[in-house]
């Protein structure tokens, strides 16, 4: 396997740069330091607007379901009560449990079931939210959450 690089001889010269040439080279080649806020903003800008909109919708669907679920008497008797509305305080067991119920219970506004692909997109949106907003890098829903994966498989087969 061969690689082709477009490098000028001046970029790979063995000549030691003098202090003055190094200083002038640094002025043109190196940009000013980037602040943490600028870095975060650049990372945010890399996400397409459609994805941001979809993730916002997904999180709102979750919040609506979680608030409804928390208002039910049956939920208040549950071992994992309350449902984490803002997804900011939960155990992984509880998250797996609630996500499984969410996938089974969530419906469109007209009360019809979401197609499997839409459910997958909702799950992906929640996972992106946890990754981007909560910095939880170790969550891979359909791999590490067995109950959720089982529910998704069940809905796909139906």
Walk me through this protein's architecture.
α3 crosses α6 (116-132) and α5 runs parallel beside α8. The chain starts with 18 loop residues before the first helix and ends with a helix. The mean pLDDT is 77. The protein is elongated, with a radius of gyration of 24 Å. The chain is built from eight helices and no strands. It has a domain at 49-157. With 158 residues, the protein is mainly alpha-helical. The chain has helices spanning 19-29, 36-45, 49-71, 73-76, 92-105, 116-132, 141-144, 146-157.
Comma- or semicolon-separated keywords:
about 0% strand; elongated
SSE arrangement:
Layout: H1 19-29, H2 36-45, H3 49-71, H4 73-76, H5 92-105, H6 116-132, H7 141-144, H8 146-157
Amino-to-carboxy terminus distance: 48 Å
- The global form is elongated
Broad structural category = mainly alpha
- Fraction of helical residues: 55-70%
